[in-house]
Amino acid sequence: MNFEDFLKIHRYFDFYNFIKKDKSQTLYQKIRRGIVILLHQRKKEDPRENDNKIIEFIDKITQETVEKHILKWNKQQKREKTIKQKTNEFREYFERYILRKMYTRTFRLNPKEDEEKDKALRAFFRKLSFIKPKHLEIPEDLVKQKGAHKARKKLQEINNAKNPHDKIERICESCNQINKILDRANMNGADSFFPFFIYQVLHANPLNIHSNIEYILRFKNSNLLSMTQAGYYFTNFSSAVRFLENLTAQQVLMSQEEFENHMNQIKSEENEPKYLFENVPLEKLNIRDLRDILLEYKKIALENEELKGILQKKQLKQK
Amino acid sequence: MTFVTPNASKIVILGDSGVGKTSLALRFTHNEFHDLELSTVGAKCFTKSVHVADKDVHFSIWDTAGQERFQSLAPIYYRNSRAAIIVYDITQKKSFHEAERWVDEMKRHGDEDLVIALIGNKSDLNEYREVKMKVAQEYALKNNLIFLETSAKTGEHVEDLFMKIAEMLPSVHAKIPENLDHNFGIVSISKLEEKEKRKEKKNCC
């Protein structure tokens, strides 16, 4: 990367285009080689060690890229940003790009165990869906507000994002939505934010919550996570999940009996078919939703055909 | 060349719900006070830098939910924090007992060099006082805490509180971080809001 290119890059979009435009350049080759080696090593060694190596690799390549330009940069003293800020920006770009490329192989540490945990957690949240706003002492009408659905949608998108940066971005967007709703209702502070956020997380029930939280924690510096606004939102997210995981009857203002009743009730309904998006108004569905619905219908159609086949066999036997 | 390391001081605000935790943070960082009718803040991590005793301290103040049922989550919030502000309402005895419980917990589970401050808020409502200043002061002295009575409404002693905390903080953590947003490789919130505004504009046209 020469100095002119270095100056031109202000956003991730610029960076991505720069890399994409010319794949013969040394920087692209360097990244590619690094990724191939790291993924190859991942098969043999402890994945945790491999995680550290990935982070080291991102640090190293950022350093190498920026180091060349320090002298020139410092000469032009009128610049608003210091070289340190610029380095941090570039670290972000490299992190987003490289982790995106390695996403499918690095998402889970122990694929089998984590997947089971995710499924269990999702099923558990679904069981908890009897929880209404009143159980968390949230005003009923907050939940029906315009932005509430959008906030849940953003939470569901966490699983679609393919690097830690984007995942946290989704959480922030959702939290901003919630803050807006609270503003309109003249409520402020964490006292009113957190219960509402818990309600949203529960009813959004994003895919692979456990793995996503672990993934972010693995690749983001924990010290920095505890300093920034985004880190604050992420902490709220993970503690909301923790709260729901260990939910007791008292915490939702119910008697033990009532709580257990609810939990058992939904168990029996579990076998019944669940329709996606049944609570979503038609005009709010987007293309991605429609695709999901289509897939769901295909599944049902397949099941039907299977059933038909079984029936036919039975009839044949009877004859 | 190294990457910018975090050197902001994280402060966590604890206390029963409705004692004025958010108002206190808002008064300090923005010098504003909102009555119930006029609020404009959601949940936030408030930030501000101050200069005290030849050092710059960058505060990152974390608001927490005070309801009893969320108490078990507190450790997630006070992890890595340099100071804890424990707030009670001087017009509510119950909130003071709650504060005592928090002090115990922080003494037991917090870092060794954690600075703890006990704050009696709403000092402007002196006529409804239920917690005597002397009682709280003695308790604070016994437990080696910073103690002040503040009013987020009038701003009384709020500045003093944070200055005192800044003085007590070890100087290692006293440097302004450059460009904190990028620091973490995270979207700056203001950028996000801009994006949303632009989207909204598009929708109207």
From TrEMBL, chain A:
One of its GO terms (molecular function) is guanyl-nucleotide exchange factor activity. GO terms for biological process: vesicle-mediated transport. InterPro entries: VPS9, Vps9-like, VPS9_dom_sf. One of its GO terms (cellular component) is cytosol. Residues 115-253 form the VPS9 domain. Pfam families: VPS9 (PF02204). This is Rab5 gdp/gtp exchange factor. It comes from Anaeramoeba ignava.
Automatic annotation (TrEMBL), chain B:
This is Ras-related protein rab-5c. Keywords: Nucleotide-binding. GO terms for molecular function: GTP binding; GTPase activity. Coiled coil: none annotated.
